[in-house]
Backbone:
């Protein structure tokens, strides 16, 4: 678990169009909020 004062790990993220990007490239220009949702159904 990441503590408040720690940086988030730089992981790759897969988008719904099957493109891949690193999280660091998304938060370079502005803050980033990442939300994980679990689909039940």
Residues:
């Amino acid at each position: 678990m990441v503590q408040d004062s720690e940086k988030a790990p730089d992981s790759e993220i897969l988008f719904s169009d099957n493109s891949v990007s690193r999280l660091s490239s998304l938060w370079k220009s502005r803050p980033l909020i990442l939300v994980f949702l679990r689909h039940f159904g």
Remarks:
- Helices lie at 23-26.
- DSSP finds one helix and two strands in the chain.
- The chain has a mean pLDDT of 84.
